[in-house]
Amino acid sequence: MNSQHIKVACSSCNLRELCMPAGLDAGDLARIDAIVARRRKVKRRETLFRTGDPFTSLFAIRSGFFKTRVASEDGRDQVTGFQMAGEIIGLDGIVNDQHSCDAVALEDAEVCVMPFHQIEALSREVQALQRHVHQIMSREIVREHGVMLLLGSMRAEERLAAFLLNLVQRLHARGFSQSEFILRMTREEIGSYLGLTLETVSRTMSKFMSDGILDIDQRRVRIVDPEGLRRMINPPGC
Amino acid sequence: MNSQHIKVACSSCNLRELCMPAGLDAGDLARIDAIVARRRKVKRRETLFRTGDPFTSLFAIRSGFFKTRVASEDGRDQVTGFQMAGEIIGLDGIVNDQHSCDAVALEDAEVCVMPFHQIEALSREVQALQRHVHQIMSREIVREHGVMLLLGSMRAEERLAAFLLNLVQRLHARGFSQSEFILRMTREEIGSYLGLTLETVSRTMSKFMSDGILDIDQRRVRIVDPEGLRRMINPPGC
DNA sequence: CGTAGGCTTGAGAGGAATCAAGTGCGGTGG
DNA sequence: CCACCGCACTTGATTCCTCTCAAGCCTACG
């Protein structure tokens, strides 16, 4: 049993500026609280949901780190994203009332369970919530456009640089260091996300280290030369 | 001046089963009609909207064919999708109240303009519409997952086969042939979408032709061996 | 203290990019 | 109506980036 019926108020959550309640006033906030029926703990390597599971709820990540992945019939799989605290997960399930990807915790995690029919009901009444739900979905679409650009037109070094900059930027928005962080995922998972093999990811990281751009110790990464990393994406030759 | 104030009812539109009104009953249909403020013609090569344009409306494609593309600072660009009649375009603009990609007509086209604030207002009242808007956005997210799988883990032949099968399937849903169709886009645009060069697209198509899977004459494509095309995606070796 | 999983590094192969001609269709203008 | 021109496309030769296969290391964990 990994569900718990602990009541926690969005209004007192330190993620409220990043998460579901973002942009809502105090009055509406109280009504959002009612949506978060319960919280659920997910242990490392466990799935929050899998492909084919009936869709009932969206999940707001309260702590921990997830990956989402899709699989094709022939066993190939592709990591479609890494999600961290304050981000909403499960949007893929809305179309067909069942999930079309797996969400796997990369470390022990806790999520707020938000039954979707309640979100819909409340967003019919609270315009700010309706707007916010639309924005969350649109943001995901735009994010994926960026991934398509990365996968479709960038070389290995550019992909990895873009990935690391994106990661550190999102972590920084959550109060972490601008330059130092711990990778929650393996080289293989990074590779899957970036359309590269784990060897290429490893080699590219080693190159960044010998170039003096990064300092890497296992999963610990320190960005020594942020400008150099940004230059990797927009090659000086262009 | 490429805007026209022609009033056309969704209720009498032959795309109503595929488009915005899908799944709505007769009563709600009438209310949707009110949303489609006007229609707009877009000539071949013209843009419906560009990156940075203020976002005001979603567009339902009534006729014609579009591509959407994103550009990075250094001039690279990536085709993020091809859209045909009945599909909704412009969802990228919701997050930041401005568009983050370009929509370009690949042939003379006509779209129904649906002011987004009106969609929001009506979907607060009509639950079926609310549900449908959510589904449209979720469908786009899931579609992009599929593209990420394609770009991240497939080889050139697999990508092209998946692309052609997807195209013919969508065309078939609109009453066109299951086996024969006209490509509305250039080899270069296909290549951009699939993360390949135009030469590789051309070579791969030639190979499919010499394998007896396709019959190609310029933009005209006939799928001779649909099963063979499907086998390209799931290689027998797996 | 042993082991397994994650990671690094090397060597070689291969698939797609790049560079380079050349073809042919469609549109334009004489 | 026909000739010319440009753009899209095809095809070939070569390069190169990344994958694949392989070996060994390190570290965390039991």
TrEMBL record, chains A, B:
Superkingdom per UniProt: Bacteria
InterPro entries: cNMP-bd_dom, cNMP-bd_dom_sf, Env_Response_Regulators, HTH_CRP, RmlC-like_jellyroll, Tscrpt_reg_HTH_Crp-type_CS, WH-like_DNA-bd_sf, WH_DNA-bd_sf
Pfam families on file: cNMP_binding (PF00027), HTH_Crp_2 (PF13545)
Keywords: DNA-binding, Transcription, Transcription regulation
Record's protein name: Fumarate/nitrate reduction transcriptional regulator Fnr
Occurrences of domain Cyclic nucleotide-binding (ranges): 20-97
PROSITE patterns in the cross-refs: CNMP_BINDING_3, HTH_CRP_1, HTH_CRP_2
Residues in HTH crp-type domain copies: 154-227
